[in-house]
Specification:
five-stranded antiparallel sheet; alpha+beta; 2 domains; four-stranded mixed sheet; 22% strand; binds molybdenum atom; binds ligand MTE; Sulfite Oxidase, Chain A, domain 2; 7 helices; single chain
Length: 245
């Protein structure tokens, strides 16, 4: 749907304008407009049309449950690219036998989870596009536990405002509760039929196809529910916090 490679520079500036003007990303824009955004002229028209709407209309339109597009198994990008704030050889090597997912904040049950136990929860699969703000995208076959299922299982206070994530590599990020409960916000354990590769977040990562890629935290080690915005690694450096639909 979106060919980012050919229009890197133009798309980067479009992305900046989108985020500044409307808290929207290219991914969200393409989802909403149905345009492939390969033609800059067309992208500009959509952007200008959007910028004429007032913020209140946008907030109502973009809050909640709109679904990101899904793809066929034949369209999955293999191997899935690596990206992080460090080179690939520094990706954390997590030992599954001692790994636990920690849970804290506004939740009833703070018991830590093994990966094995996470696999006893109802699993879901989604083949969706991951869009990085740096100008590339790739289609992944993510399988695991919907974050909503997990939050309900631990008795999270879903009237709280935020869900925060801390990662094995000191990365961190956060979602508003509505986005955390979105049906396509997934705690992925597998890519295709295999456990996640180290490069892509073993043993547990988020897949949040309604948001820009930096919201899909890899190597998740802890989840917490809070009424204070936890920010994040990129969010704290000025990337738009919402970054999605
Ligand atoms: N723990 C962790 N999660 C992370 C990052 C990171 O550096 N560390 N980078 C983010 C960014 S910017 C992107 S685009 C995706 C890249 O995921 P990938 O390596 O599976 O392509 O991970 C996101 N989650
Ligand atoms: Mo990214």
């Amino acid at each position: 749907m979106i060919k980012l490679s050919d229009h890197k520079t133009q798309l980067a500036s479009l992305e900046r304008r989108l985020l500044l003007r409307s808290s929207l990303s290219i991914g969200a824009l393409s989802m909403l407009s149905g345009c492939n955004l390969q033609d800059d002229d067309q992208a500009d028209k959509v952007l200008w049309a959007l910028s004429r709407w007032n913020d209140r209309v946008q907030a109502r339109l973009f809050s909640g449950s709109r679904l990101a597009p899904t793809y066929a198994a034949s369209q999955v990008t293999k191997p899935f690219p690596f990206n992080a704030f460090y080179p690939e050889f520094d990706a954390p090597q997590v030992d599954l036998s001692s790994w636990r997912l920690e849970v804290s904040g506004l939740v009833a049950d703070k018991t830590a989870w093994t990966a094995e136990r996470l696999r006893t929860l109802p699993q879901a699969q989604q083949i969706t596009r991951h869009i990085c703000i740096e100008g590339w995208s790739a289609i992944g076959d993510w399988r695991g536990v919907p974050l909503k299922t997990f939050l309900q299982r631990i008795g999270a206070d879903t009237t709280a405002r935020f869900v925060g994530f801390r990662c094995a590599d000191r990365y961190h990020s956060s979602l508003d509760m509505a986005s955390a409960l979105h049906p396509q916000t997934l705690l992925a354990l597998d890519f295709g039929n295999e456990a996640l590769p180290t490069a892509n977040g073993f043993p547990l990562r988020l897949s949040v196809p309604t948001k820009l890629g930096f919201k899909s935290a890899k190597h998740v080690a802890a989840i917490f529910v809070s009424n204070t915005n936890p920010g994040g690694y990129w969010e704290d450096q000025g990337y738009n916090w919402f970054s999605g639909i």
